[in-house]
Design a protein that fits this description.
The protein has about 130 residues and is mainly alpha-helical. It has five helices and three strands, in the order E-H-H-E-E-H-H-H. The protein has a three-stranded antiparallel beta sheet. Helix 3 crosses helix 4 and helix 4 runs antiparallel to helix 5.
Length: about 130
């Protein structure tokens, strides 16, 4: 018999809420077995959840994650899945680096404005003292 986990066990193992697991199930990213009203998650579900959470952390959309997960079943020993994951990850990295550069520029501009403001305040304080 295949080893399964309850929703509570999955939540504890991955630090997610039952609502999160049900949401991923509703989006057909996870497909736990059912025993009456109980959800029983398989090792496959655990592996998929790990990939879902990693993908979310890296900023992949749920649709991108779904497409990548669906490629697992193509039957080419995951070659297509790995290739597409690599392509999407490279694009995401470029996007994140652009965002970082834009954020660094904005931080530098804000620091310059704060320096200007501090200098102006010091001048005003010196005049009134």
């Amino acid at each position: 018999m295949e080893e399964t986990q309850t929703i509570q066990q999955m939540c504890a193992a991955f630090g997610v809420t039952p609502r999160t697991l049900r949401f991923y199930e509703s989006k057909e990213l996870l497909s736990p077995k059912r025993e009456g009203t109980r959800r029983l998650f398989t090792r496959r579900d655990s592996a998929r959840l790990k990939l879902i959470l990693r993908g979310k952390r890296f900023g992949f959309s749920l649709e991108e994650i779904r497409q990548l997960l669906d490629m697992y079943d193509i039957g080419d020993e995951q070659a297509t899945q790995i290739q597409e994951t690599y392509r999407i990850a490279c694009a995401r990295l470029e996007q994140m680096e652009r965002q970082r550069d834009e954020l660094t520029e904005a931080i530098d501009e804000l620091k310059a404005q704060l320096d200007w403001g501090r200098q102006l305040l010091n001048e005003k304080t010196d005049v009134t003292d």
